[in-house]
Amino acid sequence: MIHFSKLISAVEITNKTNDKIAALVDYFTHAPDKDKLWLIAIFTGKRPKRPVQTKLMRQWCMQITKIPEWLFQESYSTVGDLGETMALLLPEPTHQIEKTFSEWMQEIIDLKSKTDQEKEAYVRHVWSGLETQERLIFNKLIGGSFRVGVSKKTLVNALAKYSGIEANQLMHSIIGNWDINEISFYDLLQGEHINYDNSKPYPFCLAYALEKDLEQLGDVNDWQVEYKWDGIRGQIVKRNNEIFIWSRGEELVTEQFPELVEAIEKLEGDFVIDGEILALKDNGILLFNDLQKRLNRKNVTKKLLQDVPIGFYVYDMMEWDNKDIREQPLSLRREKLEHLFSSEATNNKTLFLSQIITSQNWQDLISVREGAREKDSEGLMLKQKNSPYHTGRKKGDWWKWKVDPLTIDAVMIYAQKGSGRRSGYYTDYTFAVKKDDKLVTVAKAYSGLTNEEIKEVSRFVRNNSIEKFGPVRTVKPKLVFEIAFEGIALSNRHKSGVALRFPRISRWRRDKPVEEIDTIETVKQLIHSPN
Amino acid sequence: MKLVKFTNKGIYCIPGKFYLDPWFPVDYAIISHGHADHSRSGMKHYLCHDESKAIIQHRIGADISIESMPYNKAKTINGVSVSFFPAGHIIGSAQIRLEYKGYVVVFSGDYKVKNDNLTTPFEPVKCHEFITESTFGLPIYNWLKEDNLQKQMHDWVISNQSKNRTSVFIGYSLGKAQRIMKLMEGVSDMYVHSAIHNINNAITSSGIILPETKRWTVDINKKEIQNKIIIVPPALLGSNMIKKIPNAATAICSGWMQVRGKRRWQSVDAGFPVSDHADWNGLLSAVKATEAEKVYVTHGSQATFSKYLNEIGIYSEEVKTEYGENEDEGVDDENTKKAS
Predict the structure, then answer these.
(1) In chain A, which residue's Cα lies nearest the Cα of B325?
(2) Considering the entire predicted model, what is its pTM?
(3) Is A161 a catalytic residue?
């Protein structure tokens, strides 16, 4: 595992993407071909099923280290990762095992069919034969998930640098259908198993935040106005009966959205369209957090499909009938788009044509924008009707015009340690507002503070909490924060009776005493009174 | 016998009428070591180890009333025999041993069991009551062997040099910086920030020899520092001063870097688990070696470590102190990292 362990060390010892790419290129230059295939498989989520139950591994680790359960738990909540916790707790190795990466993977696959006794003997033998770092890698390989700060995109960029092949083609190749035992590393890179012509995407056209007065934009009739949505920007490519969904980050996410593929299959012809993937349920749009559950998963379960159904709001077309139409004006592209959707999409639950908002003057649009929140929208998009579909970010033709967030002042009452990158610090907070002489929770938020502030809050939590053990701390209600959010609705699921949309910390109100935080009544008044 | 009690000003010796590492101004303070959370300003009189004297004067003021003595030598104060034993934490760090009518209490201050080839190595002291720190009181903290750690750091610098990068190490001025200097001695020319430079001067004034370094200022020609090593205190993390170093790779040196998540959370390239504190096994072996019948656990993972000691049959209580809660220059950064 020398090459692999060296690679992991190399990517962990830098936060410069170029260094990571260089380390990967070095790996592709020196490691055996079969190992390279495994690396691609592991980093793209094509991993074997977990062969040993987590529960058993914890038990063995506690037996070896003679650590009581509660202390194991304390350690785990500080480290934030089970495989790493065990790697750190286990004693120094008594011997040295050296195998190639693919040999390890084969053994892990074979382990699946063994008895629990055989599994235990194997794991104990391996643990006592590896250094901490390699033990960590072994635990992560058994556990399946292995995040080392190498995204699919970084991997693809490294492969592109190593091979000279176009990055998007490589993205298609590695995401495509391939079996580690049936393809060579060379053929995988060459894309022997795929037809890249069918998936090739266009660069996305990106918008700037509006920075002009509306009057400077000229005649309102020259602009196509739509709602702006907070979802995942997606490009759907349909050519020769193959369908691909690309995300903004140039990653293929086709497998994550099967219902969207199904809906697209029903449309006639070849095309490339641009739009927004949104989580839609009960006539409303779910939070972005919910939508994220659909990403980064190998298997989209039935339950997930039911819990977080998605829809696609289509707003542009870049290719029709195998012809690039990006240079045609938006108005014409829109006509073609409407034509595509005229027959089928009307009775579809997944595909929606982005609604065009018409208005006589800019003044009307201001009030439409203010009402955007009631439609679960973030604001408006303004697109010049004459504009081509630009490559990347070009100023002037596409503007996003977002509504200002709503804010309340609330006090922190619970804090929880983060995991992974933020392990060890209290980063997840629960906030409350006043209800008569009591406090009632209204939101959970974990972003918006600087590292320094997180450290300071963590120190406060340690010194002002009731519990001594476990991950959640109840703290004295002292720290006041301004919480920003995009919308608010009545909700039975929450004790406070309201649910906030996309809450986050906008600032720490050190100046504000707890007595002056909002009450649940003032919070409820924000419902249906935008801004 | 009640020899010491824990007050809101610090650890108080009842018959001796003096305090150990107090955090409020008192008449007579006996100081374990020079970090700012242990040696605070405002005391009428200070007693410390010989090698800490210049450091404390440098930090608090040359005009304070201060006396010092070497390890293993006793001084009697109001009938209490006071002596210092090496704590191995930083240069001049001492465990404070108190003996009164045959009853012995030892206050560890901060300590490190492993030898760093710079600080006088830790010596266990038998006692009836032991007051121990617990900064790294979780079994996940087990330090690498010194040569292994050194190799990792050397490899990193050499790899940086192959990419024409300057290696910037981040470690607090008193203790960690000298540790890094010792670990990296001979690998490359070393430059230190002026805060570290001044501390180095205070240390060498008591006759200690440190590895050779140059003072780093922003006026130094950028060509001169290329490929070299620069050591800076944590306050400079993310500052323009560091950002202006062309082609720099940065690394934090702290025991907290043992955990991957911590390394990745900081906006630096690398993290090396270089600690001036005892690891889990170090704490356990130190506690056992004292054969104390009662163990008080202070700053760090006091709840966890104390609970564990009780479970393995060593009577223990946790004690709240204000160590590791100060962010002044010169503070033990590993302590505040935990507290932050």
Answers:
(1) A459
(2) 0.79
(3) no
